[in-house]
Amino acid sequence: MVLRLSMMAVEPNGWKLEVNVELLAHIKKVYFNKDNLSDADMQISRKISVFEGCTARSILTLTSGAFLVGFAKFLGASNQISGIISAIPVLAGIVMAFSPIVFEKMENRKFITCLFCFIGRLLLGMMIIIPFIKVSRVFQLSILISVFFIANLLLAFTSPASQTWILDITPEKIRGVYFGRRESIVLGTVTIITLVMGQVLDRYEKRGDMLIGFAILYIFVIFSAIANFIMFSNIKEPCNKLAKNKVSFKNIFKIPLKNNVYMIVVLLMALWNIGFQLAAPFTSVYMVSHLKLGYSLITIMTVLASFTSVLSVRLWGRLADKKSWLYLIKLMVVIQILCFFIWFFINRNTLFLLPIAHILSGAAIAGINISINNIQYSFSPKESKTIYMGFSSAVNGIFGFCGTLAGAYFVKDADSLYFKVAGFTIENMQMIFLTAGVVLTGCLIVIRILKKYEDYATIQA
């Protein structure tokens, strides 16, 4: 894109800059489409979306999990702070409850979606500047938390709009095939990139030059953010129809609270998020700080979990169709409880349990994600599903982050916890995994109560 400026003298001592009309016309054409898209337009856009997904997922993976924990600990973060930082995306997800208030009033959402996603992803890459700022370690960590939180707020805010956008250019009859192929390509690309970056960090860690390793990683993130913005901008957006019923800030909280049956669903979501987020953010902390595993091995474990998710999600979907979504979520909760109990027994002498824990976790998350969304959708009234789903997003974010805070304070207060039972060593983080498994058993009780209202869900769907 070439920006051409013409200069006109308007008076002896002043100049006026006039932006070329062609630039404005180009921006309008790219970001503010008013025409119906042809089949060819949507097909090309879907192909671009595959590569856009590769860059987006790569950025997400390289700026979260063990990579994020490693960077935070490089800046001097404790295990407690590292766990809290890992859970920031969950807290930022609260903003998804309010994004419909803005997006439902817009015919064209592409410009703000592309802009916010670019700024958010660029901020993630720019975190590499923090170690070069000559301030105290505490202030550096404060900057890291602030920048990471703002970046995730921007990305979470645009998430509903971007997901809807890609669905709009994908006909329903090919969605299963398309998203399955897209996910496999994205997963394959991200696997290669994360394995390479894991090797880079391991190599520079052995040399004692971790800053150089992180600099390479985050510079790659910056270039990926630029590439992502270019590709995202080239995906065409259909013109959106404005919603007839306006979503208000007040109704997001007022309406669901009056629905007693839906509040049982909310209780289920709250228990799940407290139990899961109590321990999940600390699995990466545990692998980095306690088990002292290399980034390459941690990456392999993460990829193993993702691969399991991709393979199992279709199986879980068919199982839900045969049984019910409540049956599926009950099974997934049981698997996740088993997963946390396995984490409890993992130490330097039982690393053979690590792949089993990641396989179970990947399978459970795949089933939980689709079952939670469908249960929330099924139990919400037809005319207010956006409001109910928004309310659930806020609840999930709040209770999930509270769970992580509880886990973080336990890690700090029980930092010296260490004892042996029959020759087996138990430390503070292992107790968090055990506690999380116990908390999740509460979900099974709520599911049993909710089972009585399945007919209500059928009526609402």
UniProtKB/TrEMBL annotation:
The chain crosses the membrane at residues 54-75, 81-103, 115-133, 139-158, 179-198, 210-232, 261-287, 293-313, 325-346, 352-375, 387-411, 431-450. InterPro entries: MFS (IPR011701), MFS_trans_sf (IPR036259), Sugar_transport-like (IPR052528). GO terms for molecular function: transmembrane transporter activity. It is found in: Cell membrane. Keywords: Membrane, Transmembrane, Transmembrane helix. It is a multi-pass membrane protein. It comes from the Bacteria. GO terms for cellular component: plasma membrane. The keyword Transmembrane helix applies. This is Major facilitator superfamily MFS_1. It comes from Ruminiclostridium papyrosolvens DSM 2782.
